[in-house]
Amino acid sequence: MNLFVIGDVHGCYETFLKMIEQWNKETEILIQLGDLIDRGNGSPQVVKLARQLQKENMDQAVFIKGNHEYEMIEHITNPPNNNWLMQSGSETLHQYLAAGQDILDDVEWFQTMPLYWGNDHVFISHAGISESASNPFNEPSQHGILWNRGPLKNIQKLQIIGHTPCDSPIYNEQSNSWNIDTAAVFGNKLTGVKLKQTGEIMEWINIKTDTRDMKEIK
Questions:
Q1: What CATH number is given to the structural domain containing 99?
Q2: Inside any domain, residue 109
Q3: Mind listing the pLDDT tens digit for each residue in 69-90?
Q4: What is the span of the domain harbouring residue 184?
Q5: Which of 65, 124, 125, 205 gives a 20 to 30 Å CA spacing to 59?
Q6: How many separate domains does the chain show?
Q7: 216 band by pLDDT with thresholds 50, 70 and 90
Q8: Angle made by CA atoms 129, 85, 169, in degrees to the nearest 5
Q9: pLDDT at position 58, please?
């Protein structure tokens, strides 16, 4: 099957819904590369939808852990995580209370999230395999697969990442990587890319951020 990879959602529920409408379940594996939560207006709703999609589509819907899922796990299992609370975690907690959604159950689901999806040609993760990481799978490491913002290593596969917001998808020839975090939560757009399992890009999908997903600017 082909791949349909979606960038950082960050609580943009209405925008995420529109992106999911572009998913062809008959021919594509859906892979979202982390940071479902925080900053936008609908973190609980995004998580609920993601869990529903995974439950209904088994291995055809993959949700990779991002640093914001990691941060929320840390806060719930070993409180407080003040860094997360300051990075809109407090607002996410209020959203969960308002929605009446079981945060403990969602955190248990976060703990089952894989750190990457890969095959012989493509490697998809939240922040990528860093040139400087001795152990890229060390979750708390600033050079690890959840946090890295430095140069990526050329691993002889196409890497697709998010984590660092940009105006449009950015390709790095040296590392053979695409960054598809196009700052949906800041009012830009949510990006999805459809590609063959060999890494050949087939189509780009861009969904302008729905204004209902963003904080009101006063």
A1: 3.60.21.10
A2: yes
A3: 999 999 999 999 999 999 999 9
A4: 2-213
A5: 205
A6: 1
A7: low
A8: 35
A9: 85
